[in-house]
């Protein structure tokens, strides 16, 4: 018997915990974890021609075009590690990218099986992100409420003074949430029309989120 590949998209606003959950889903279902950030970094690090091309855009501070990311994605999808399927971490972000992914999967006689949306209220996301305090020296990340350092404002690991990253400031987070909502609404509509969208409450504890994600995947029709 041939097991069909499973392709799962994990969506959710920045700070919803997609990365953590995507890794757990990938491990539990033997899927390849794909995030476009890692994909880009990987191609650049390996000095491939695609990476070289991407570097040009990144150095100019421009977005890497969809078509170029699509080429990297195609390469990864055709690799042996992707044979059992993939979990797409925060990709696609737009309907155009969703159409592109559909095309790539159909070349492999595959399709998006399920889209999991991690719903977290804006107020929770703001609390999660704006409470982060990062160590500029060793990269450790603390949180004023959920993971406070032993001495206030001081990194547990190396003793340097903790800072709030610019990206973690309230105004920046609010703007990211606004842009995310604007792009994601049509995307959710696109998948909802195909009846493959499942919303999971991402505001509960990570273990419980994972349990609910697995449950939502359990009724994926083959
Ligand atoms: Zn440190």
Give a written overview of the molecule.
The chain is an alpha/beta fold and 222 residues long. It has a domain of 104 residues: Rossmann fold. It is built from eight helices and seven strands; from the N terminus they run βαβαααβαβαββαβα. The strands form two sheets. The protein has a five-stranded parallel β-sheet. α1 packs across α8, α2 packs across α3 and α6 packs across α7. The chain is globular and about 55 Å long. The mean pLDDT is 93. The structure holds zinc ion. The site of zinc ion has 8 residues, from loops.
Radius of gyration: 19 Å
Largest sheet: 5 strands, parallel
Query: Based on DSSP secondary structure assignment, what is the total number of beta strands?
Result: 7
Q: Treating each run of at least 4 consecutive H or I residues as one helix, how many helices?
A: 8
Encode the helix/strand succession as letters: EHEHHHEHEHEEHEH
Oligomer: single chain
Going by CATH, what is the homologous superfamily of the domain at 6-31 and 84-120 and 178-218?
P-loop containing nucleotide triphosphate hydrolases
Helix proportion: 40-55%
Strand order of the largest sheet: 2-3-1-4-7
Mean pLDDT: 93
Ligand inventory: zinc ion
Query: Would you give the CATH topology of the domain at 6-31 and 84-120 and 178-218?
Result: Rossmann fold
How would you describe the shape? globular
Unreliable parts: none
Strand content: 5-15%
User: Gap between N and C termini, in Å?
Assistant: 14 Å
């Amino acid at each position: 018997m041939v097991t069909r590949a499973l392709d799962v998209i994990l969506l959710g606003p920045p700070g919803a915990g997609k990365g953590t959950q995507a890794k757990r889903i990938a491990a539990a279902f033997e899927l390849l974890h794909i995030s476009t950030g890692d994909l880009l970094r990987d191609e650049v690090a390996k000095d491939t021609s695609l990476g070289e091309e991407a570097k040009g855009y990144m150095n100019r501070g421009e977005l890497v075009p969809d078509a170029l990311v699509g080429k990297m994605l195609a390469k990864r999808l055709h690799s042996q590690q992707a044979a059992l399927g993939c979990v797409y971490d925060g990709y696609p972000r737009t309907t155009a990218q969703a159409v592109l992914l559909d095309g790539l999967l159909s070349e492999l006689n595959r399709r998006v099986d399920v889209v999991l949306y991690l719903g977290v209220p804006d107020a929770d996301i703001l609390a999660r992100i704006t409470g982060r305090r990062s160590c500029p020296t060793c990269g450790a990340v603390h949180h004023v409420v959920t993971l406070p350092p032993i001495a206030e404002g001081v990194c547990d690991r190396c003793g340097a003074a903790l800072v709030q990253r610019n990206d973690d400031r309230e105004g920046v987070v609010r703007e990211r949430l606004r842009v995310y909502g604007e792009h994601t609404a049509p995307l959710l509509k696109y998948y909802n029309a195909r009846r493959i969208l499942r919303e999971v409450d991402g505001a509960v504890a990570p273990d419980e989120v994972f349990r609910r994600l697995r449950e939502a995947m359990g009724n994926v029709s083959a």
